């Protein structure tokens, strides 16, 4: 059975939302990883993208945000490496 659900059984029926949450918590515990909410993976993804040099526009499109302001408000503060790089560039042009 075909369905548009991401988390589903082979027959297309969606998982119960608690199933994903519980399985994710079990995965973290079994691998001695710190507890985080499943949704926090989305924030981790955006952070990693920004820290690897992606622009806010790149992250906006990747995350599916309709407006770049939303992306900037949520993740803009995380781009500290890029800010340092820009500071170094401008300092190099002054001195």
Give a description of the structure.
With about 100 residues, this protein is mainly α. The protein folds into two domains: about 1-35, no CATH class; about 40-95, no CATH class. Helices cover about 60% and strands about 0% of the residues. The chain contains five helices and no strands. It has helices spanning about 15-30, 40-50, 55-65, 70-75, 80-95. The protein starts with 16 loop residues before the first helix and ends with a helix.
Question: In brief, what are we looking at here?
Answer:
The protein is mainly alpha-helical. It folds into 2 domains: 1-36, no CATH class; 40-94, no CATH class. Helix content is 60%, strand content 0%.
Category from helices, strands and their pairing: mainly alpha
- Compute the CA-based radius of gyration: 19 Å
N- to C-terminal distance: 66 Å
Range of helix content: 55-70%
Total count of strands: 0
Order of helices and strands: HHHHH
């Amino acid at each position: 059975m075909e369905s548009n659900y991401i988390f589903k059984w082979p027959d297309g029926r969606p998982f119960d939302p608690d199933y994903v949450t519980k399985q994710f918590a079990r995965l973290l515990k079994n691998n001695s990883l710190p507890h985080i909410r499943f949704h926090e993976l989305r924030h981790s993804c955006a952070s990693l993208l920004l820290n690897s040099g992606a622009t806010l526009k790149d992250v906006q499109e990747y995350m599916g945000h309709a407006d770049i302001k939303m992306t900037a408000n949520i993740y803009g503060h995380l781009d500290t490496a890029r800010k340092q790089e820009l500071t170094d560039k401008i300092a190099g042009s002054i001195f």
